[in-house]
Amino acid sequence: MNIVVLGAGRVGGAIVRDLSEEPDFSVKVVDLDPQTEVRLRELGVDFELHDLSRASGVRAAVKDADLVVGCVPGFMGYSTVEAALGAGKPVVDISFFEEDAFGLDELAREQGVPCLVDCGVAPGLSNLILGHMEATLDETHAFRALIGGLPVERDWPWEYKAPFSPRDVIQEYVRPARMRRNGEDVTLPALSEVELVHFPGLGTLEAFNTDGLRTLLETSSTPELIEKTMRYPGHADRMRVLREAGFFSDDSILVASGTVRPRDVTESLLFDAWQFAEGEPDLTVGRFTIEGIENGAKVLHTYDLLDYYNPDTETSSMARTTGYTCAAMARLVATGRWTEPGVAPAETVGRQQDCFDFVLEHLAERGVHLFHRVESAD
Questions:
Q1: Are strands 139-151 and 282-294 parallel, antiparallel or unpaired?
Q2: C-alpha span between 91 and 115 (Å, rounded)
Q3: CA of residue 154 relative to chain centroid, distance
Q4: Rounded Cα–Cα distance for residues 152 and 172 (Å)
Q5: Could you tell me which residue ranges the Saccharopine dehydrogenase NADP binding domain spans (predicted)?
Q6: pLDDT (tens digit, 9 = 90+) per residue, 108-145?
Q7: What is residue 123's predicted lDDT score, i.e. its pLDDT?
Q8: I need a surface site. Which of 68, 112, 134, 262 has the fewest CB within 10 A?
């Protein structure tokens, strides 16, 4: 099985490491940065340099692939997946692209290949859980997802560092947050409705609206769908100040040195400020709750996630939780467990019990555990 991984940053690198341990897989990494080859050389994978921002570059990169795993930044994710599908390749993707993933469904079906999208932790693992619960419960009434990736140490002034591209983080703060309340789809500003959430053993975090539900708004009939991102308290206020002051704007402005886009400058500054130092520990925390009816009774299912940086493999928690979920999804396709042509988000996969169990077992084997509890909601 020849697997081509497009992009190998922090998360992509974890995916490459995971897949390269499978003796039946031959893994090739494609990236524009030659330092990626140096960083991943010990894994014994092949490496090629290609410009993945061009469809011709993607086609050249995937020409010998049996399966393509997409790990590029969100702004180029849709076009990259489209080019790989156009080459007739099945795709498993984690890029947080803005476009509607179902716009690729017809192409995937025409090519007769599966395309699993949003295969990270949230969206991804969170969607998988809801899909599983919708297939298990008699009725589902409400789904609420809280998720955050954070540095263990809180350093002034940001008390935050980005486990993936700052560009994609900022996109979470400017993209309107879509959700569902009382059966009606509504849209609110990102960073709105801040609330405090306590986690025993970790402390108090703040949660605010972001646009992480994505395909669930099309595929789920659950009348209440909420997704929020979590940070250390005070982060939302800082980000709102930057956003409302224009620092996240894509509109060019004239300054003494010429014409610039404020967002480009902000991203450049935050790229260094939000960069994790070598070996710096991070954590991923999540809470996914589903209310519904089971065997005639009102129940509340809660899945808690708390994961930390692994110093033995030098793998960040966000890379572990996101990357290992994606690697599990890739294995579903590679081993023939998922063969249905067309676009399938994680919630669709989660409705199949064997696929749901496979992904959670894959994560548990790598030390990423979901703690599930059920209680009465009466």
A1: antiparallel
A2: 5
A3: 23
A4: 21
A5: 3-115
A6: 999 999 999 999 999 999 999 999 999 999 999 999 99
A7: 92
A8: 112
Q: Tell me how far apart the alpha carbons of residues 60 and 48 are, in angstroms, rounded to a whole number.
A: 10
Cα–Cα distance for residue pair 53/69, rounded to 1 Å:
16
Whether 349 contacts 338, CB under 8 Å: yes
Measured from the Cβ of residue 370, the count of other Cβ atoms closer than 10 Å reads 17
Task: Return the ∠ at Cα 326 (arms to 175 and 143), rounded to 5°.
Answer: 55
Long-range contacts of 243-250 (CB under 8 A, 24+ apart): 243/173, 243/174, 243/191, 248/170, 248/173, 248/174
Confidence (pLDDT) at 97: 87
pLDDT of residue 239: 96
Q: What is the mean pLDDT of residues 141-150?
A: 96
The backbone torsions φ and ψ at residue 97, rounded to the nearest 5 degrees and listed phi first, read: -80, 155
CA–CA dist 16, 7 (Å, integer): 10
Distances from the Cα of 50 to the Cα of 126, 175, 241, 323, 330, angstroms:
32, 30, 38, 22, 22
Write down the H helix ranges in the chain: 10-20, 35-40, 55-62, 77-86, 105-111, 125-136, 166-174, 216-219, 235-244, 262-273, 317-334, 346-350, 353-365
Do residues 203 and 117 touch, judged by C-beta distance below 8 A?
no
Half-sphere exposure of 357 (CA within 13 A, CB side): 4
Q: Alpha carbon of 255 to those of 67, 246, 270, 301: distances in Å? A: 47, 14, 20, 54
Is this structure's pTM higher than 0.90?
Answer: yes
| pLDDT mean over 294-323 | 93
pLDDT digits (tens, 9 = 90+) for 254-276: 988 889 999 999 999 998 899 88
> Among 221, 229, 168, which residue's Cα sits nearest to residue 197?
229
Q: What is the H or E stretch that residue 289 is in?
A: strand 282-294
Residue with the two structure tokens 């922090």: 10
Q: Is the pLDDT of residue 164 over 80?
A: no
C-alpha distances out from residue 160 to 131, 306, 358, Å = 31, 17, 33
Average pLDDT over residues 199-212: 94
The yes-or-no verdict on residue 162 having pLDDT over 80 is: yes
Task: Give the helix, strand, coil percentages of the chain, each rounded to 5.
Answer: 35, 30, 35
